[in-house]
Structure formats: structure tokens, C-alpha cells
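JOB MANIFEST
job_type = single_chain_structure
chain_count = 1
residues = 414
[input]
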Amino acid sequence: MREASVDAEIIVVGGGPAGASTAHALASSGHDVLVLDRARFPRDKVCAEYLSPQASRILALMGALEEIERSGPAHLAGMEVRAPNGRTVRGEFAAVRGFRPFRDRGLAIRRTVLDDILIRRAVAAGARLEEGTRISDVLRSADGKVTGVAGRDASGAARDFRARIVVGADGLRSVVGRRLGLVRAARWPKRIALVAHYRNVAGIGVMGEMHVDRDGYLGMVDVGGGVTNVAVVVPVSGAGRVVEGKAEFLEEWIAARPSIAERFVGAERIDAVRATGPFASAAKKAWAPGAALVGDAADFYDPFTGEGIYAALRGGELLAPFIAESLRPGAPAERALAAYDAARIEQFSGKWKVERLVGMAVAYPAMMNRMAGVLSRRKDMADLLVGVAGDFVPPRAVLNPKFLLTLFFSPVRA
């Protein structure tokens, strides 16, 4: 129930997957939730637009999966990775060593469609949504506790929004996280992505694709309706010309690689090339008195493993009961938020280690070539690693001496 002194019991800044998941879970349990987003839905978002098989579990709980299926998404059977030396690794989202996914397919769908469906599910659960609202700061009491956010509403008028707790679900450059001094940029890796959508790219099938080269990588995935999401990710140090022309940089990068370029003969780019990054940021902790961070606002490493949407959905699902506990009369609110941070680390730390292992391989071609040499002839290992990326195989299955010694020290055939 809303208190007279506040605009909402809980304010969620950001209506993407993390914010929608958090808002849906809390509103479904009877809490008064206000979601603030600077955009108006449906809106687009620079993203790989890939959802791992386990994301469908949360989509089903939100009542969104059937509508998403009716929208015509692509279904992904797994991932295919091409190393700098041309060796290709294929891993499938299949049951492996007793681990089974919620579904044996991932999804790929335009964010214009996905985010609109998710925020409407949150509203249907009882959350309120104010679009076109730009947040610029957090409000704090004399003792430093967060009491709301400040910004401009849809009319452009300055406005304060007050709540008992604020959730920062506002992405990689979170205003909430930065104003609270919680977010720090990592020193490595520093990469930016250029993303666009194409029609008629040749050879696009049921696998997501990653093509790794010595100065970056390219990802391609069918997102339904005959459209392919194309992203080139390069080190910031080698992307000086991006500011002069994003489209030219993307197209020249593709054209310089014959095995990729031949697939774009006759392809048509259907929207502008957009940039995002630099990546690699993490919160020192994902909470402060009266506030919590979730999704990319709390942690983002690199888009290679492509699991950001699942992490956002799962993060919201994970956070909601701790928010509810912090609001319970007489409950030690800060203890509940600290417990959320501990649970978040326990949930995701293994995956973070795998992401960093993969990030090292992307940065060092010899390492990627060696890994590809092993995984191309050990499909069971490839499936296991892709299962971790697909969020249904626990990271411990690959973060063990046997797997790592085989991956890095077994003989590789020429």
C-alpha cells in the first residue's frame, strides 16, 4: 500500500528486463511499485538480442513466454565459434552429463518486442509505469539513506520521486549506481560494440555465431522475421575511427574478412549502426541504505557470452524477496540488502569466472586457437561450455582441474 509521504513504496529506475522482472515479482506479491523509464515503449535497445534457454523459465513465470512465442522469435540450438585460425567449434543446448535446460532452445528476439512485452507484464501485475522520465540524481536523508530520485518527468518539469526503497535497473551507465558511488569501471577488457540489423545475410541457421579475429570479434544471430542481428566488438584502443563513421567502420571490418564478407553479398542493412560501450563495469557492492542495483547496473563484463538478458531477469527474480524483507515492519533493512548482495555473488560468481576465461581467450588468439582445437574434437566439452553460457550447466562443471587441464594441455591436432 502506498504511504502518503511517498510516490511509491518501491521505485524501479529502468524498465528493461531487469526492471520489469523486479517490478513484476514485487507487484505480484502486493507491493506498490513505480517504474520510471526515460524512453517510451516500445523502444529499441543496442543489444545482442539473445536469451539463453533458462531465460524461458522466468519468462514463463512472468506469463510472457506465450506472447513472445507468438511474436515470431528465432529459436537457437546452440552456439558456433570460429577461432582466428579458422577452426570452428559447435556446442548445442542439449542435455549433457545429467544437466538439462528448461528448454533445449534459446531465443533471439528484437528488444523492441521483448521489452514491450515484459514491461506490460509488470504493469498487468500491478506496477505503475511513467515513461519519458529522466532521472539525474538520488535523494537522500540527513543520515545518507536513499529516499527517492530526482529528474524530469514527461513534460520536462523538474520533479522529485520519493519511495521507501529505490532499485537501480538503469543499465551499464547506471545513474543510481554512479550517484551512490557504487559502480566502478574495470580496467580490462575495454571494448565497444557496433550493432545493426541486416536482411539476406547468407547461411544464417539455428546457431548463434561468434567469429573471433585478432582485433575483435563479430556476432550474428537470427532474431526472427528474416532479420539478423550483427555486432562487431573491438578494443577501444583500436576503434579511434568509430567516431568518424560507425557504418563505415562496421562495413570495412566485415569486408576485410573474406569468409565473413562473402555472406554479406546482397545483404541489406535496415537500420543505423549504433555503438555501445565501453564495457566491463561492476558494483563494489550492489546496495546502499535504501537502494539496490540489479542487472547491468550491478555488473557487466563483455557481450561475448551473450547472457545479459538472462542475468537481468534472474537478478530481478533474486532481488525481489530481499526487497520485500527489507520493507517488513521491524525488519533490519540493511541486513536484507546485504544478504541480497551475498546471494547475487553466490548466484553469478562462477559464471563471472567463466566469462573472464573466455574474455582472455578472445584477447589472445593463440589461446583461442588452442581452445578451439580441443573443443572442435571434443563435442562433449563444447556442449558443456555452451551449457554454462546457456545458464543450465553449473560453472563448476568447467571450472575444475580435469576440464581445464584437458582444455589447455591436451595435444591439439594440426
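[summary]
Residues 333-363 form the longest helix (31 residues).
DSSP finds twelve helices and 22 strands in the chain.
exit_status = 0
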